[in-house]
Specification:
Radius of gyration: 11 Å
Largest sheet: 3 strands, mixed
Oligomer: single chain
Distance between the termini: 25 Å
Length: 70
Amino acid sequence: MHFRLIINPESDAGFVNDVERTVATHREMPSDLEQALRPTYPNVKVRDGVTEQDGRKRWYVYREGRWTAS
């Protein structure tokens, strides 16, 4: 994988497992992962980004379409 996943909420073990399993076959574009997760998580959003600290690419995966408290 050429990027790091940031999954929210990280306290939802089922969601985290689904994302990690699904990204194995849907890692070309964030929209691919989002579409693959949508049947189970209708509000899911996947966004890409790069952090200034280390320049590593990240995909942010939000179960509810936005950041929520864990």
